[in-house]
Write a structure and sequence with these properties.
The protein has helices spanning 11-23, 39-58, 179-191, 196-213; strands at 2-4, 61-71, 75-89, 92-104, 110-126, 131-132, 140-141, 144-149, 152-156, 159-172. By secondary structure, it is of the alpha+beta class. The protein has two domains: 6-58, no CATH class; 61-213, no CATH class. The strands form two sheets. A six-stranded antiparallel β-barrel has the order 2-3-4-5-8-10. Helix 3 runs antiparallel to helix 4. It is elongated, with a radius of gyration of 24 Å.
Length: 215
């Protein structure tokens, strides 16, 4: 399951276009000499910048999830997990969200489906796309973060189920000023530390990521 989230629309760009149409002289008006760029050129540049910003904010990123588990001797569990928030509890950071899973026996027969809220501990994070920007203000940005949760044992449909792990893949849209990409890098750094303050910061950063994605 893919959770694609949208952000700011192009309303701001449309508003600027309307203002420009009202203020910029028509084709029949005599051009006025200026020392810098014309009003029309400056206005078109502003509209272009707003449009680009709107497009970038319209798709900050997305989350895909992957759940694998077992029950009994040969039963399998397959599904998705949608995080709603991250909390700090008993010295660990947990993802709290909705598990949607289907259970099948070893012969392929369908047992049933489950839809319930669960809490899974955050275990690991990797970013294969980590890169460093140039210039004096170099900053790491990560376009992809793979966040590993679990394992976890729980009761589903009266069966004792073992979730091997839950993998959340968070993808950020590349570009300058990529706040989401910078936050994804921060997650990798914070997981290397075990102090109470670092864990609290980790929960906060993960919640900010969800806020940007509007999950």
């Amino acid at each position: 399951m893919k959770f694609s989230k949208s952000g700011v629309t192009g309303i701001a760009a449309a508003s600027i276009v309307a203002v420009v149409a009202a203020l910029v002289p028509g084709a029949q008006a005599a051009p006025q000499p200026t020392e810098g760029p014309s009003v029309a050129t400056a206005a078109q540049t502003a509209v272009s910048q707003v449009s680009q910003a709107s497009q970038a904010m319209a798709a900050p990123g997305e989350i895909t999830s992957n759940v694998r588990g077992t029950f009994g001797r040969s039963g399998v569990v397959r599904g998705t997990f949608e995080p709603k928030r991250f909390v700090f509890r008993n010295g660990e950071v947990y993802a709290v969200g909705t598990l949607q899973a289907a259970l099948r026996r070893g012969d392929g027969s369908f047992v049933g489906s489950a839809d319930r809220q669960i809490s899974i501990p955050v275990r690991n994070a990797t970013s294969p796309s980590m890169a460093v920007g140039g210039g004096q203000s170099a900053m790491r940005t990560c376009d992809i973060l793979r966040l590993v949760l679990g394992p976890l044992d729980l009761d589903l449909l009266g069966l004792q189920v073992h979730l091997n792990r839950v993998v959340l893949t968070i993808t950020a849209v590349s570009g300058p000023g990529n706040l989401l990409g910078n936050l994804l890098c921060a997650v990798v750094g914070l997981l290397d530390r075990t102090s109470l303050l670092s864990q609290l910061r980790l929960a906060n950063v993960l919640d900010r990521i969800l806020s940007i994605l509007r999950v």
